[in-house]
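# nightly structure sweep
# worker-07 picked up a monomer target from the shared queue
# config: single-sequence mode, recycle default, output format = structure tokens
# input follows
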Amino acid sequence: MFTLFKSSPKFPVVKPVNIHQVRSYMVKFEESLRNFEEIQKEAVHS
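# output follows
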């Protein structure tokens, strides 16, 4: 009758992640954002 508590196939399974990998990814992401902002500023001023 009720399928409320049945595990949904659409719901993603949570996998353990490496914190160091996530941190290094975030650092690279922030760095690329800064580079992108600098390019934007240069494009506006030129």
